Amino acid sequence: MKKILLTFAFASLSTLWSEAGTITSAGTLTNLTPPGNGEGDVADLDALGSGGNGFVVFNTLPAGDNESGAAWDNNIVDSLPAYVTALDGSSAISSGGWANYDEVLIGGNTYNTGGINNPSAGGSETSLFSFELTGTIPSSFTLGLLTDNSDNVAWAASNIRVEGPGAVSANQNITPDGGSDLVSFKIDGGVAGEIYTVYGTSNGSGPLIGVATFDSDLTNLSIISITHDGTDVELTWVSNPAPSTEYTIFVTTDLSLPIGDWSDINDGIPTGGATTTYSITAAELGGVDKIFFAVQEN
After folding, report:
1. Which one, of 68, 6, 58, 26, lies nearest residue 222 by Cα?
2. Which pLDDT tens digit goes with each residue over 235-249?
3. pLDDT by residue (tens digit) across 86-142?
4. How far is it, in rounded angstroms, from Cα 71 to Cα 196?
5. Torsion of CA 65, 68, 71, 72, to 10 degrees
6. Could you give the CA distance from residue 268 to residue 245 in angstroms, rounded to a whole number?
């Protein structure tokens, strides 16, 4: 079966228009470590396939170093994916090195977790950190947030909310019991320059997040980038890396037309691997003010 993807439009060829990303709750994996007190508990995120694109571990210190009220990025393990930049937790603080914090296995390494936190009364929501999207962004990716990784359940989030552009947000409740929980959110259609903020609701002393993970599924055909330099337009899409794969780009100025009546720009574009990029010249666009694109795998 041929795969076709319709994507965004230009309102004018001097200004690129795109849609803002959407956020949905993607469930919670509970009790990755046993509930209650217990030193040496390890949440195996590698076994879950979490953090495949990248991750952040907040304030990791050997058990017994006992640090509180530190800068948000103190002792941070920053292994962010290329599409995430400008991580900022300056509105929060961090702690780490306490024996009752769970460990986490991620990226082939085991870290003693600490956490980014914001001391606050139970039931209060505060911001913890934000990040910006940049470069070539997957059409869909999952943000995972590890909480309840301290055996002191007062230092956990009873709710986590992620907010994006235009106040679009999603949230999930958690029941802290001292067993690490991974709370996941799916972000679809994100574009470069968008900023997403993570909020936590205090379970008594303040919300705490030990790890953030990023994962995407790049197996489906999807346009992930459109750029315009004033004359030419460049499209990038997630593609099939099989060497024999080719694509066709279709264009139209009228969305009411069936895809069969669209014009094709090129019907023999070879795959570029995991992603393919193709430039369309101003002459090929024909000087129109608005145009729509579709990509088809032949």
Report:
1. 6
2. 888 777 677 888 888
3. 999 999 999 999 988 999 999 999 999 999 999 999 999 999 999 999 987 887 899
4. 21
5. 100
6. 9
- Please say whether the beta carbons of 261 and 240 come within 8 A: no
Instruction: Please answer whether residues 276 and 239 qualify as being in contact, where contact means their C-beta atoms are separated by less than 8 angstroms.
Output: yes
Q: Summarize pLDDT for 1-23 with one digit per residue, the tens.
A: 455 444 443 333 333 334 568 99
CATH fold group of domain 31-216: Jelly Rolls (2.60.120)
Structure tokens at 191: 């574009």
Q: In this predicted model, which residue has the larger pLDDT, 283 or 13?
A: 283
Q: Which fold has domain 3-17+219-297?
A: Immunoglobulin-like (2.60.40)
Whether pTM exceeds 0.90: no
Cβ–Cβ under 8 Å, residues 85 and 131:
yes
Q: Looking at per-residue confidence, does 71 or 52 come out higher?
A: 71
Cα(190)–Cα(212) distance, integer angstroms: 18
φ/ψ bin of 74: left (φ > 0), alpha (ψ from -120 to 50), beta (otherwise):
beta
Q: Where in the chain is the domain with CATH 2.60.40?
A: 3-17+219-297
Q: Return d(Cα 192, Cα 272) in angstroms, integer.
A: 22
Please list the residue range(s) of the chain that carry CATH number 2.60.120.
Answer: 31-216
